[in-house]
Specification:
Largest sheet: 4 strands, antiparallel
Number of helices: 3
Strand content: 15-25%
Distance between the termini: 20 Å
Strand order of the largest sheet: 1-4-2-3
Shape: globular
Radius of gyration: 11 Å
Number of strands: 4
Length: 78
């Protein structure tokens, strides 16, 4: 299982979800401020988390480096 921290802005939720739908496996997104997680491939789920905070994306089948690179626009600076 692999995870990465991201931030999704209101105008990029659709792009984020479309990227997640290309992932061949289960992916969840959660916020440290909330007590639930959502399917990363669900636009309504991602919206329900609130976009004013850091989110964590969890990949259950592993994620290739090239797929992680597609998340670069959403990733937080280290």
């Amino acid at each position: 299982m692999e995870s990465t921290n991201i931030r999704v802005k209101l105008n990029s939720v659709r792009q984020f979800v479309e990227t997640m739908r290309k992932y061949d496996g289960d992916v969840d997104v959660y916020s440290s401020n909330r007590n639930y997680l959502v399917d990363g491939k669900s636009i309504l789920g991602v919206f329900s988390l609130g976009l004013d905070q850091e989110l964590t994306v969890k990949f259950y089948n592993g994620a290739t480096e090239s797929f992680i690179n597609t998340l670069q626009p959403f990733m937080l600076a280290a």
